[in-house]
Write a structure and sequence with these properties.
The protein is α/β, with parallel strands linked by helices. The chain folds into two domains: 31 residues; 265 residues, Alpha-Beta Barrel (TIM Barrel), CATH 3.20.20. An eight-stranded parallel β-barrel has the order 1-2-4-5-6-7-8-9, surrounded by five helices. The N and C termini lie far apart (55 Å).
Length: 299
């Protein structure tokens, strides 16, 4: 009887301890929430977008993830550029005045490599070149950053999903560590993401947009993330995404774009987003640290 009494006392003590510690652990879990900051096209507020200088600037700011855009040249090379024409971010109009509208897909890689992709931004970037995807990945290998890779207008480039995956594989980016921690493929095109998932189910994918809640389960068959324009984000929508399991049987994530002000970052963190895509990663990283106790950038 004395033995049973002692056991009861120990059990009661343990239960009381658990009752005291469980709320603390829950609070710690909330406090440990991680906000991922993605440098949009590198660090596009500080260097010409989608260039190696922009990647390096993001790295120098401590930004652990960058976002880019991939398209294809006339002779089949994958290049990193946002617009489907070369007019805005290169000197193509001056160098090739008769080639309007200067579509990326109508130029060879050799022609694109003659273009200045930095002088439009600031004189000190004169001579910056449009990088190939292989060159871009090589720079990320040196900086150690993760990549949110956007298939830009894939309907213009049939087969670009498979071609991009093969390029990633050649560069060593489809191994376990990269797939787990350093690579996400995104697109506005649901068919392109379906194809990517079918070809390489282990690759994490993100849909750019905000499909209705009623459609989330359908998107969850091929997308691990829903990445909406920031004005479309609401707390109920984020909760609906978080309660939907993606293709890897994990809750889907929400990354909002393009978030360049501290007040917007604070608002979105309060709504529950997982990541922020920004031209000013230093500003947004600082804002996220202030807006959520214990929130940190992902490493």
């Amino acid at each position: 009887m004395r033995h049973r009494t002692a056991l009861s006392t120990v059990a009661a003590t343990l239960c009381a301890a658990l009752a005291l510690t469980l709320p603390t652990h829950t609070a710690q879990a909330r406090a440990a929430r991680t906000i991922t900051v993605y440098g949009h096209r590198g660090a596009a507020a500080y260097a010409p977008e989608n260039t190696l200088s922009s990647v390096q600037r993001a790295a120098d700011l401590g930004t652990r993830w960058v976002e880019n855009d991939v398209q294809r040249t006339r002779d089949g090379a994958l290049v990193v550029i946002h617009d489907t024409t070369l007019a805005r971010t290169t000197d193509a109009k001056r160098r090739y005045p008769g080639r309007s509208p200067w579509s990326v897909g109508s130029f060879t890689l050799a022609e694109i490599k003659t273009l200045d992709a930095g002088g439009w931004f600031a004189p000190r970037f004169h001579g910056e070149r449009v990088p190939t995807l292989a060159e871009y990945l090589g720079r990320l290998d040196r900086t150690g950053q993760g990549l949110l890779l956007e298939l830009k207008r894939p309907e213009l480039y049939p087969g670009i999903e498979d071609q991009t995956l093969r390029a990633l594989a050649r560069a060593g980016w489809l191994d376990g560590p990269h797939l787990a921690r350093r690579l996400v493929v995104q697109s506005f095109s649901a068919p392109a993401l379906r194809t990517t998932h079918r070809l390489r189910p282990a690759v994490r994918t993100g849909f750019l947009g905000n499909p209705p809640v009623s459609e989330l389960k359908r998107y969850a068959a091929f997308a691990d993330q829903i990445n909406p324009e920031q004005r479309a984000v609401t707390s109920p929508y984020v909760k609906a995404v978080h309660t939907t399991l993606g293709p890897h049987r994990l809750p889907m994530r929400v990354n909002a774009w393009t978030v360049d002000s501290a007040p917007d970052a604070t608002r979105l963190v309060g709504l529950g987003v997982d990541g922020l895509i920004t031209n000013r990663p230093d500003v947004i990283a600082k804002a996220t640290r202030r807006s959520l106790p214990g929130a940190v950038r992902s490493r």
